[in-house]
Amino acid sequence: MNEDWEERTAAAWATFDDYDETEAAAAEFRAVIDGLVAELPADSPLGPFERACAWDSTGRSDRAVPLYQEALTRGLDGYRGRRTKIQLASSLRNLGQAEEGVKLLTPELDAASDELDDAVRACLALCLADLGREREGLSLVIGALAPHLPRYQRSMARYARLLVEPQA
Fold it and tell me: What Cα–Cα distance (Å) separates residue 30 from each residue in 12, 24, 54?
């Protein structure tokens, strides 16, 4: 889409916290996003993505999931595609489908690195925890945290590996 649309969409999202947590306010915010989506070509993957984000952000993971899936089916890729996978996995987890979230995010561990790496690991860790695989989840979180520490990066990265590697 064009830069003007991107800026107006970013501005709409910047106001999200100005809305209270009532259903009326949630519906009002979703209407703002729907208005922006109406400007997109009918087959744009950005439409279902933005609508999914609005439903998800207003507490309706059930309505967000099929829209995230539609965005991916329409070919949303790159940075927004990765965001979609993270948010879809989180929504699936919220709906009791953590295994689907694990299947969606596990390949992202090997994807090209970007600023979303830690979000992938955090969401995947939550999905794993819901499946009773807490050690794997903790390993991911500590491994993601280690590079951000002022000291102990090497030892924390090692500890993260040892949580899931067999003891020798």
Answer: 10, 10, 6
pLDDT in tens, 101-120: 999 999 999 999 999 999 99
Instruction: Work out the pLDDT band at 53, boundaries 50, 70, 90.
Output: very high
> Which domains are present in the chain?
3-132 (1.25.40.10), 135-168 (no CATH)
61-94 pLDDT per residue, tens:
999 999 999 999 999 999 999 999 999 999 999 9
Contacting residues for 142 by C-beta, under 8 A, at least 6 apart: 156, 157, 159, 160, 163
- State the pTM of this model: 0.91
d(CA 142, CA 157): 7
What is each CA distance from 91 to 88, 116, 133, in whole angstroms?
5, 17, 19
